[in-house]
Amino acid sequence: MMKKSLQRLLNDLKKAWLPIIACIAYVIIMTVTVGEVCPSKLFFGIPCAGCGMVRAFILLVTLRFKEAFVMHPGIYLMLIAFIIFLIMRYIINSNIKWIKLLVIISLSLLIVIFAIRVIICFGSEPLTIYDKAVIFQLLNMLLSFRKMHSQSVK
Q: For the CA atoms of the chain, what is the radius of gyration?
């Protein structure tokens, strides 16, 4: 049974190595170059349900459990869901329907946590408006263009 589970894990890693590397590269490149990882914040300036999850994971790995929870309370939900997924996929060999149900429940709870966080602590890190977002830059350019155009007409 252990050999079969290990073989399944290796097969999954063979199939997913490129997306895994791409995600890691994206996080590293965006953190170093822009200082922001979240596409929602980068384009629209508003946080998403996962905002703070990467930082919470880093805090968790460095054994700063309370700080990880403060950064994103859903980190423990995701950790539990990941452990359940590993058990279902590699030990129990569960039907894919149960794994899909686990994903749906986990993401639904993450959205509930996000709604609560927005109500309670919007404006504090990581739930802040990102003023360097693409949409704000475009709006500034548009307003500048409009202002220049209105001055040239006078």
A: 21
Residues 69-93: what's their mean pLDDT? Answer: 90
Q: What is the pLDDT of residues 2-58, one digit of tens each?
A: 788 888 888 989 999 999 999 999 989 988 998 878 888 889 988 888 888 888 999
Question: Which residue type, as a one-letter code, is found at position 71?
Answer: M
Q: How many domains, in total, are found in the chain?
A: 1
Report yes or no on 119 lying in a domain: yes
Using CA atoms, how far apart are residues 62 and 54, in angstroms rounded to an integer? 12
Q: What DSSP string describes 42-94?
A: HHHSS--TTTTHHHHHHHHHTT-HHHHHHH-THHHHHHHHHHHHHIIIIII--
C-alpha–C-alpha distance, residues 53 and 103, integer Å = 16
Identify the domain containing residue 97 by its residue range. Answer: 36-153
Taking the C-alpha atoms of residue 95 and residue 76, their distance in angstroms, rounded to an integer, is: 24
